[in-house]
Design goal:
Chains A, B: It catalyses: Xaa-L-Pro dipeptide + H2O = an L-alpha-amino acid + L-proline. Chains A, B: It is an enzyme of class 3 (hydrolase). The structure is a homodimer of 508-residue chains. Chain A is of the alpha+beta class and 508 residues long. Helices cover 34% and strands 13% of the residues of chain A. The first copy, chain A, contains 16 helices and 17 strands. In chain A, the strands form five sheets. In chain A, strands 4-3-2-1-5-6 form a six-stranded mixed beta sheet, sandwiched between helices. Chain A has a three-stranded antiparallel beta sheet with strand order 7-10-11. In chain A, a hairpin with a 4-residue loop joins strand 16 and strand 17. The longest helix of chain A is centred in the middle third of the chain and has 24 residues. The radius of gyration of chain A is 25 Å and the shape is globular. The termini of chain A are far apart. The complex binds manganese (II) ion (2 copies).
Chain lengths: 508, 508
């Protein structure tokens, strides 16, 4: 699809079905090991229910279907209404396909035979969903009530519980509601090479779309127009029909609203000269997501104040990525980011005093109330953040962390430090007797309405360090060059002819 | 936003809040009239619950919120979590606003005072949703159990019932579950001028986007790339964040799948030379939708077979629009379209025999299994289709009609005749002893894999006739000119220099 005139150098890759085969094998291995360790027999079925299409309210408007994430992980099924099972004894995988009415062929498309799905999803067996009881009983032979490992457990980001599968006749089985969820969730935490390749493509196309946005942004546009440019680029050239999350296209003071862009704050502000833009947008490809934030001045030129805050955040971002490797605590990485940001703010005369004292008083959470980053995969906030390691902290900032685990090889985690000027946090902190002493009120006043800066990359933890899968202009001079029309990645000439305009800020 | 280099001549209009004020007044008038006619007292509250944001499965992924349609009609509220009431006695309107937690300001945006919503939505009073019981009791003064008219009724397209509002303390009210739904639904059937202006804009921007798609389509592209072009155009230049429905971008034989484009048939085919394209796509603006289908050859030049089917459908489309006026039965319009299509197919030697006999045997439903069109408004399939007039027919084709009513001034209804070659319908019809005689099997064979043609416009029923709100190239020569690069609307020069290439097909 890419041509010399195409604004993209990418095209959607074919994702091998082996990805799901590998995911199932990994689950089987973990589950069997657990059963052996707990002296339980190696039999029963992992049984999951896929998602269903949903009507909008009472109407016949059907929302575009997106598969439930655990089901997607194990089976990769794109269609609604399926169930799936894995036989713990044999490792056989079984898909249950909805039996479609004859007029489906007229309204919704060809009714495919079971063999089509067996081939498409590389499973051992296929039946209709109305055959679940019979098929599983037949496979289990003489067992009176075969055991089903059902998926039931807490999502620590939403505080919602996953719904265990249900079907007519489920009372003819024994159910185990506790074993599967933690084991399957832990499988999802560490990505296979096949998964990493998909996350990488989602990153590639989203990175390219962010660059396209930087090129096209202009004072006078509406925020949502940049959302539209991003969505179009990732769908048109990347085949990404879904986004990982609702686009956050925040400019001016909106950039201090961490989850801006939802229906009650719908990216509808007009861009003004002098605004910072904070664009947090990531496409999803073949279920796997990306989550990328770029911050830059709408007019293409950083002011010294903008550079000051931007570089404070960039230094934190880079320091964290450099420090990441297996065994490192994510809580420590969060604190490292906070400390670097506070040091920069101190250098810029925005805060005053001893940085360690600031850390003790959790001053970092005033400027960065969210966590440093989260696991990323089939869900943007991928589950498993508190399956191992410390419990969720109660301290400001730290309690917002979606994981506090030690890093492990194979994790994909976002690194997204930020620095925001949020009245709702600054005002009480400047009143508070423990923290008021740290603020240079005049400087803080200068940043009223500034908004904030976030820099977010998707980072793969490798055996010896980490690999940043996001590829967008990050240095001030890189951003200014790209916004002025330079190609990305910068060629050597533009990289050499740059004037390094990094502003170190005033000395206090 | 439109500039000389912009591919759009449009920009999103401001929609006056009077639209919802007018809608509420209309409801009040109808409801009071009904209460008077049935000798009931003029008191109580119309009480509706707005929509809520929804998580995706167990995760914290929040789907982009779109307001429930009845609530949107009366209050125009874009934010989730509201309730609304109208005092039948005084006509006062009351909004109940969710009380947001303090940290909303950090994560989701400024917490607006009640007065902001009173001003924004031009309602008489505003309270928090936790004040519903107290506020309504206070307004009702000495009444022990004030009456609530709740919204409960059948949607005849989805067969779902709307959920009546619920809140803590609702037992302190009397509930009427039957009065409101038919009266409010009937209000939605006839559009006000303010509503028509919004539907018109949705049509304008969607028409322009369809033209953009015709210009950019090329053999070798993927169907979803045209979806992306459409979505981008309507969002970028029209501010349309929502679509009326999932885009149907069907090419080749997919164009015979009436509701193609969903997750199990996701617009992923590669376009081939010689394909017909059937693109059914409509943007939603400020809650109100559009629903437009264009059919054309992917390579920009109609073959004689393509012209034959296309013109059969276009003649039906045009004849219906010419015949539309208040008092005309929609069932008759459906039959008119069928008859014209069958006559054209006979002229083209695809069917043989007496057209009246074909009509008696419902042969039209083999080629056009869907209804001629449906009411359009805040829902794509706007409700009220069977509130008045005949019950739903049981005959093929006719039973698919979403309304069988007589046209009334103020209705907006889609006119969408189609002609498809669907094996699942043709095969049994060619076997059936009553209908087999009508088919020229050789000709039918020639159209195997052809797919189908649909032409869909959104038409406003006026006092004396109708007004087509859709503005896209419809004549074969217009489509070919636009696809070859001519501006749309065509200027006089291109219109005059046209070669009229309409092909009347072979003579039998
Ligand atoms: Mn993130
Ligand atoms: Mn339609």
């Amino acid at each position: 699809m890419a041509s010399s005139s195409s604004p993209s150098s990418l095209s959607p890759p074919k994702v091998p079905t082996e990805l799901y085969v590998t995911n199932r094998e990994k689950l089987l291995k973990s589950l069997r090991q657990y059963l052996i360790e707990t002296s339980r027999p190696l039999h029963g079925f992992v049984f999951l229910q896929g998602g269903e299409e949903k009507f909008r309210y009472c109407t016949d408007h059907i929302e575009l279907f997106r598969q439930e994430s655990y089901f997607a992980y194990l089976f990769g099924v794109t269609e609604p209404g399926f169930c799936g099972a894995i036989d713990v004894a044999t490792g056989n995988s079984i898909l249950f396909v909805p039996r479609l009415p004859a007029d489906y062929a007229v309204w919704l498309g060809e009714i495919k035979p079971l063999s089509y799905f067996q081939e498409k999803y590389k499973v051992s067996m296929v039946y209709y969903t109305d055959e679940i009881v019979g098929a599983l009983h037949k496979i289990s032979k003489e067992v009176d009530k075969p055991l089903l490992f059902l998926l039931h457990g807490l999502n620590t980001d939403s505080s919602n519980f996953s719904n265990a599968a249900g079907f007519e006749g489920i009372e003819k089985f024994e159910s185990d509601l506790t074993t599967l969820h933690p084991i399957l969730t832990e499988c999802r935490v560490l990505k296979s090479d096949l998964e990493l390749a998909v996350v990488k493509f989602a990153n590639d196309i989203s990175s390219e779309a962010h660059v396209e946005v930087m090129r096209k942004i202009q004072v006078g546009m509406k925020e949502y127009q940049l959302e539209s440019i991003f969505l179009h680029h990732t769908y048109m050239y990347g085949g990404c029909r879904h986004c990982s999350y609702t686009c956050i296209c925040a400019t001016g003071e909106n950039s201090a609203v961490l989850h801006y862009g939802h229906a009650a704050a719908p990216n509808d502000r007009t861009l003004e000269d002098g605004d910072m833009a904070l664009f947090d947008m990531g496409a999803e490809y073949n279920f796997y997501g990306s989550d990328i934030t770029c911050s830059f001045p709408v007019n293409g030129k950083f002011t010294s104040d903008q550079s000051l805050i931007y570089n404070a955040v960039l230094d934190a971002h880079n320091a964290v990525i450099s420090a990441m490797r297996p065994g490192v605590s994510w809580l420590d990485m969060h604190k490292l980011a906070e400390k670097i940001i506070l040091e920069s703010l101190k250098k810029g005369c925005i805060v005053v005093g001893n940085v360690d004292d600031m850390m003790t008083e959790r001053l970092g959470a005033v400027f960065m109330p969210h966590g440093l980053g989260h696991l990323l995969g089939i869900d943007t906030h991928d589950p498993g953040g508190y399956l191992k390691g410390p419990k969720r902290s109660k301290e400001p900032g730290l309690r917002s962390l979606r994981t506090a685990r030690e890093l492990e090889e194979g994790m994909v985690i976002t690194v997204e430090p930020g620095c925001y000027f949020i009245d709702a946090l600054l005002d009480p902190a400047m009143e508070n007797s423990n923290t008021s002493k740290f603020f240079n009120r005049e400087a803080i006043g200068r940043f009223k309405g500034f908004g904030g800066v976030r820099i977010e990359s998707d980072v793969h933890v490798t055996a010896n360090g980490s690999n940043n899968m996001t590829n967008v202009p990050r240095e001030v001079w890189e951003i200014e060059a790209v916004m002025a029309g330079a190609a990305w990645p910068l060629d050597k000439a533009s990289a050499c002819s740059r004037e390094n305009k990094v502003n170190n800020g005033p000395s206090c």
